[in-house]
Design goal:
The protein contains 6 helices and 15 strands. By secondary structure, it is of the alpha/beta class. It folds into 2 domains: 10-65, Roll (Vcp-like ATPase, Chain A, domain 2), CATH 3.10.330.20; 69-256, Rossmann fold. The strands form 4 sheets. Strands 9-8-7-10-11-15-12 form a 7-stranded mixed sheet, sandwiched between helices. The chain is globular and about 65 Å long. The termini are far apart.
Length: 259
C-alpha cells in the first residue's frame, strides 16, 4: 500500500461531475468550491481513494495526480506540451533508462518531468531554457511534482545553440520555434546512431527543420502529428466524444550518422 497523503503534497480532488482540482495540502487549510469548503485535515494522513465531503455535503474523491493530470493543472508560463504528444515523443525518440538526454525549451517543465522519469537514476537529463521566468517556473513545477530536483536532472538557464560541454549524447529533444539552429551543436555532441527529436506547431517549421537535417548527416527522418479522440461509454450509449484533442504540434525525429 502506498504511503498516506502528507502535508505539502499535491492532491487531486475529483467531484461527481468529473471536475478535477489540484490542491497543495496544508494543516488547517481549506479548499473552496461553489459547493462549500473541504478541510485539508480530512485528507492529510489518509490514503488515496478517500472520499471527503464539502461543508454542503458534496462528495469528492482524492488521489495523487498522475503526471498527465499534473501537467494539465500545473501553473505554467510557457504553453505545455500535451500528454498525448509527450507519450509519442518518449516512444519515437526512444527515451530510456541510463541515457544522456539534452533538452532545449524547458518551458513550464511538462516534457522535462516525463524525460526525467524515463532516464531514471542511472541516466542524465540536461534541460536548457533561455528565459529566466520560464526556468524558475519549470523548477517550481518539478519540485512540486517530484518533491525535489533529482540528481539526474540539471536545469540550465542558457542557450543550447551557444554550445555545451557534453559529448556522446544519446538524444536531443527540442521544443523550440527554430530547431534547425540546434543542428550544428547536435552534430558536435550526438554519438553515432543518436536520435534528434523536435516538436513544432507549424508545417513550415517542419519543412525547414527536415531540409536542414537532410543536409547535415541525419537519416531516417520522419514527421507525425498525433490526434486523440476520447469515447463516451455509459450504459447503452457508446459513441465518440463531441470534442477531441486534434492538432497541437508536429514531432520530427532523425538518426545521426556521425559523419
Amino acid at each position: 500500500m502506498s504511503a498516506p497523503l502528507e502535508s505539502g503534497e499535491r492532491a487531486l480532488l475529483i467531484d461527481r461531475k468529473g471536475r478535477r482540482y489540484l490542491v497543495t495540502l496544508r494543516p488547517g487549510g481549506e479548499f473552496h468550491t461553489h459547493h462549500g469548503a473541504v478541510a485539508h485535515d480530512a485528507i492529510i494522513g489518509f490514503h488515496e481513494g478517500v472520499r471527503v465531503y464539502s461543508t454542503s455535503g458534496v462528495p469528492l474523491i482524492v488521489f495523487r495526480p498522475s503526471l498527465a493530470e499534473f501537467v494539465l493543472k500545473m501553473p505554467r508560463g510557457a504553453q505545455v506540451i500535451y500528454p498525448k504528444d509527450i507519450g509519442l515523443i518518449l516512444v519515437l525518440a526512444d527515451i530510456g533508462p541510463g541515457q544522456t538526454v539534452l533538452e532545449a525549451g524547458t518551458g513550464s517543465g511538462a516534457l522535462t518531468l516525463a524525460l526525467s522519469r524515463m532516464v531514471g537514476e542511472r541516466g542524465r537529463l540536461i534541460s536548457y531554457e533561455i528565459r529566466e521566468d520560464f526556468h524558475a517556473r519549470a523548477r517550481a513545477n518539478v519540485e512540486a511534482f517530484l518533491g525535489k530536483i533529482p540528481p539526474s536532472l540539471e536545469l540550465r538557464l542558457g542557450d543550447l545553440t551557444a554550445g555545451v560541454p557534453e559529448r556522446d549524447v544519446d538524444r536531443i529533444v527540442l521544443d523550440l520555434p527554430e530547431p534547425w539552429t540546434v543542428i550544428p551543436v547536435a552534430r558536435e555532441v550526438l554519438r553515432p546512431g543518436a536520435i534528434f527529436c523536435s516538436y513544432v506547431p507549424t508545417v513550415l517549421q517542419v519543412h525547414q527543420a527536415v531540409e536542414e537535417l537532410r543536409g547535415a548527416g541525419f537519416t531516417e527522418i520522419a514527421t507525425i502529428e498525433g490526434l486523440v479522440r476520447p469515447w463516451h461509454v455509459e450504459g447503452q450509449s457508446v459513441r465518440p466524444d463531441h470534442r477531441m484533442v486534434a492538432h497541437t504540434g508536429f514531432i520530427t525525429t532523425a538518426r545521426f550518422l556521425g559523419v
